[in-house]
Amino acid sequence: MKPKNTSVLLIYTGGTIGMVPNSETGALQNFSLEQLQRHIPELQKLNFRIDTYQFDPPMDSSDMNPGAWQHLVRVISERYAEYNGFVVLHGTDTMAFTASALSFMLEGLDKPVILTGSQLPIGVLRTDGKENLLTSLEIASATHSDGSPLVPEVCIYFENHLLRGNRTTKMSAENFNAFRSFNYPPLATAGIHIKYDYMLIRRPMPGRLRPHLRLDDNVAVLKLFPGIRREVVESLFGTPGLRAVVLETYGSGNAPREDWLLDSLRSAAGRGIVVVNITQCCAGTVEMGRYETGYRLKQAGVVCGYDSTTESAVTKLMFLLGEDCTPGEIRERMQQSLAGEITV
Prior knowledge:
alpha/beta, Rossmann fold
């Protein structure tokens, strides 16, 4: 049900959902939110108010960066009291990064922030954008009988599934079902009815929204592979200003037992660089005490990232670095769930 005067802010950042072919080149380019509304007349049938905000100019999702996340947080926080929920139209390529970042930057969130988009432009006959947008708006406006929001957290809705944003990864450039949350079940599934799993949805802590705008992007990702060269690893750890590294290891957190690799990791930790161990596997978690190779990483100062996605680990590090946490504090908080992003 919905209380009287329910309203949702629809924020258009850009992306495939709002694109049309260029008449000269055939390449897809952004068009206006007004055109989007003309392609979905069903928006007029929803029994709540929808206001709109548009990035000017719209951004391709491959151009998304911390500055754009800060812009989104400002838009949401400055209008927070005016709306019951927010829907963000976003390109799919970096949607999981944006959703993860917002989950940390919007501390104390007690309203829905639903990110969605499409694999085909809204003007294409078989577009998935219409259903994604309409259902996202329904979810953003949905409330319990007491008027409190059903889903007071940052989520991604795509192809019938509502997923926790900081648990989500894009898995397909072709399929409509483009996103997966391998280590956490869907919060809701949409069929004839939208079925919510209330036990999985985070309940907000008492308090007010505390928007965080400071991020530090001195973060890198190092994906291990057989034959990785010492020079490559040492060059990355020698990057000027580097403060944190997401280390993508094998299986449950394993790495080659090369002395030079362990020395590089130990040296980085000694210089205050935080190294977080996450698995390259789509599903599963890091268990650094399970095998000797993982245990040696722990001895070298590497921190366990549990079942974090790469997108979540990267943005969480940017957030904690922006909060001026010490390396010790960051190592401790990377092993804690701040917004439901890991299972400890």
